[in-house]
Amino acid sequence: MPFWRLVGWDLLILWRSGAAAAAITLLLAAAAFASYNGLRILAGHTTAIAEAQVLTQISPDTAASGVQSPHAVRLRILAAEPPLLDFAAGRTGLDPIIGEATPLTPLHRTFENYQVDHPLSLALSRFDFAFLMTVVAPLILIALCAGLLGEEGRTGRLALLIAQGAQPGRIVLARVTARTMLVALPLVAALLAQAFASGLEGARISAFMGFLGVAILGLLIWAGFCVALNSLVGQGVASAIALFAVWLVLAATGPSAITAAAQAFAPAPPRLAFLADARRAEIAAVKDAESLAQAYLNDHPELEQGDFDVPGWARSRYLVSQSVDQSLAPFLSRFDASLERQIAIAASLQALTPTLAQSIAMTDIAGTSARTALDRQAEARTQVTALRNALGEAIMGGRGVSAAEAASWSVRFLPTQSAAAWPSLTSLMLWLAAVWSLALAAMRWKGRQSD
Amino acid sequence: MNGALAIAGKDLRESLRAGWLLAAGVVMILLTLASALSAAVNRGETSRAIATAEAQEAQTWLDQGPRNPHAAAHFSRYAVRPLSALDDVDPGLRAFLGGHVWMEAHLQRPAEARPAEDRVDPSPLGALTPAWIVQHILALLGLLIGAVSLAREREEGRLVLLQGHGAGALSIALGKILGAAGLTAVLSAALLLAATGSAWWRIFAGAGLYSDAGLRLALWTSAALGYGVVFAILGVALSAWFSTTRASLMASLLFWAFAVIIAPRIATTAAEAIAPAPSPATFVTALRAEIRAAVMAAGDGHGAPASATVLDEQGRTLSVRGLRLQQGEEIGDVIHDRRYGELRAAYRRQADVRFAFAAVTPTVAFSSLSAGLTGSDFAHHADFLAQAEAHRRMMIRRLNEDDIYRAGDRGGAYMADRALWEQIPGFVYAAPTLTAIERGYLRDGHVLIAWFFGGFAVALASTIFALRRR
């Protein structure tokens, strides 16, 4: 019997038994929930940024006031919407998306008072498409594919089928194909619906294609496991347990253990140590304000004194902030280095489990991973430093800034782009090749056994 | 009853001889041990670094030199929540909760520096911890032990043999339940010893943060043991409903996936949707705007003329600037209490919605109870925040009072010195006992007990029904 006819027969049997309808209902319900959650997270981001943008608008009084003191300039730093926030929430809610910088505040105070979210929501509310595709969909596929030849083996029909020329490996492949289609098609439809519902344009198109590719790759890997284990482990119960054990190791325990290892091997120093250093540096700079001012003038011989009356305390605070930032730069980079190392550990170990590789790839593509958070932080620091440098001389030289100049500093958007997911994709491709090689070998072995 | 005990004993012996169970148990115990020890080592290092930073922080406060008290109130100090050995067992929400609060003038700030911000967490199911292993793997193992106990014997025809030898349905049912529960309890005991060993060591060494740490850990161990047994009993119940081991196993696995992995996430998302809390930006912006407007309307201390003074009833000269600054604080306190009260009420509603899902999965009740007993839930964090806020108010009032009584007509030019800084005590966290926590954990405990007895009744009834049907 041609292969696709076998697949068709199996789909028909699944439909008649009610298993297909149950699986599709379950998948669509889960997809609807993931979609709702994704849209809710997206709306939360959009609303927060819109509210912050309203605050950045310069009041008519300020605009009409002409020249103003440079120390009063406020820069709002807003994180742009990640390309696929509604597909993979990642670190959403954890990292700040709204900050405010002035020439007088130290760099580490750019983002403040954002830690209000309910921690339980941060820990557990990420039922998004990434979760659906990496955890739930493989489970449903495994449930559908468990013990594919068990019934035939138990009742003796398998021997009858072999006697009629059927190849057990081919039967397994056809059944797994039918079941994979049953899982994949509703999910792909749901992903497409979500993409079109929340708009598909610009960077989102390529990101979505990448996300879809990773999602399908993951399902194909699990389909490969289903073929391999159903061929290798003939008994229904044993193959069901084997498949689930593989899921437990590769999708549940493995990624969690690797995450714990990455966190344990490259822990960040406690933030309190950083703050204690910041405060000591601040007090030292406050006490040393006069010599800081002299040092600044020595370093800027070209500085011309203007006629705008910048308050003395503003000059002091500017110098103190500069001094604090300079003394804390090495400490700040330790946090980045620690997160970089954790990312590197997770990235190097992702080859051990396709679920981890899939999860990292999805958040990287969605622009919600730790990598994109680091990029965003670096960009925020660049923007704040630029503000400081641009207005520092005005503060120290007593030069007022025009309303237009102040307005030009009112807001900066931090680009939140997809991070390169090639290492994860390479891991997934290697997994795909390895699992399907195993599956094909197992099919051949099964064929030889039945001969 | 003797028959039931004999059947349970036989099941226990047979299962302990089964290689896969022993292997799974050993792997699980080793994972737990590695996870608990790694957590203990990391916590020890972090605690030492925090203690050093706290000492440095205190010295910086004393060494700040002559300053206006209000400038010192803005510089202020940090309230730090110490780590506990119980965090090694279940870090709960600690990674998502800030560990210290900047007790600045004018604004009650949220706790800063959530450890999760400095951690990578690519796993869809979170990082591995002893509580994670109990919540996920012990539940699975319990369920599998229960799921095969009846179905396998039925498939192999041994049930008929048992009934033929005169064993009654009740004896067999009780025996199966006791056997599955007993085996899970044996495995749990070994696992829980691995999970809590280092924490017990710390407690016996007198280094526990909580005065009732021993009670907490004992209750946690009992709850974890009960949780595993509940899943074993549910496994037996499921096993009775299905005629083949394969079907019983698949049903158990799907139930596990739903109960342990999917339902808790649905519960949390549903809670957020049904009882939404304001976004951080909205909350903080509205809070600051309301305080600013109220303080400006009453007269802001920052703008008060430096030389403005009044006399009190005892004829002492009081600084108007200092009085207004303190008045601003008191106005802010009322607004803080109301706004944060509303936020906490929203969180409580969310907790209630989430708790409703405890009716469909014991995991919701256990995870909540587990985090509560180890002090890593939001209720303990809220207690820390309340203590920090009380300390902030006391500290700012002391600084403002110094301004009021000693600044005279010097206003912002008045400088206080080390003598004042030494009068301001540092924050010391008084770790609460379980009974002091407002939330109470009886509700979670009751639900787990209900799952135990409910599961037992269903398993017993299903097994007897299945046996008699034969």
Description:
The complex is a heterodimer of chains A (451) and B (470). Chain A is mainly alpha-helical and 451 residues long. Chain A has one domain (3-57, 67-450). Chain A has helices spanning 3-17, 19-56, 60-64, 119-124, 129-145, 150-155, 157-163, 168-197, 203-232, 236-265, 271-287, 289-299, 312-349, 354-366, 370-397, 403-408, 422-450; strands at 75-79, 98-101, 411-414. A 3-stranded mixed beta sheet of chain A has the order 2-1-3, sandwiched between helices. Chain A is elongated and about 100 Å long. The mean pLDDT of chain A is 88. The mean pLDDT of chain B is 89. In chain B, the strands form 2 sheets. In chain B, strands 1-2 form a two-stranded antiparallel sheet. Chain B has a two-stranded antiparallel sheet with strand order 3-4. The relative contact order of chain B is 0.15. Chain B has helices at residues 2-17, 19-62, 69-75, 86-89, 130-155, 158-164, 169-204, 213-241, 245-274, 280-298, 320-356, 362-373, 378-406, 418-423, 442-469, and strands spanning 78-80, 100-102, 309-311, 317-319. With 470 residues, chain B is mainly α. Chain B has one domain (2-469). The interface between A and B is large, with 90 and 88 residues.
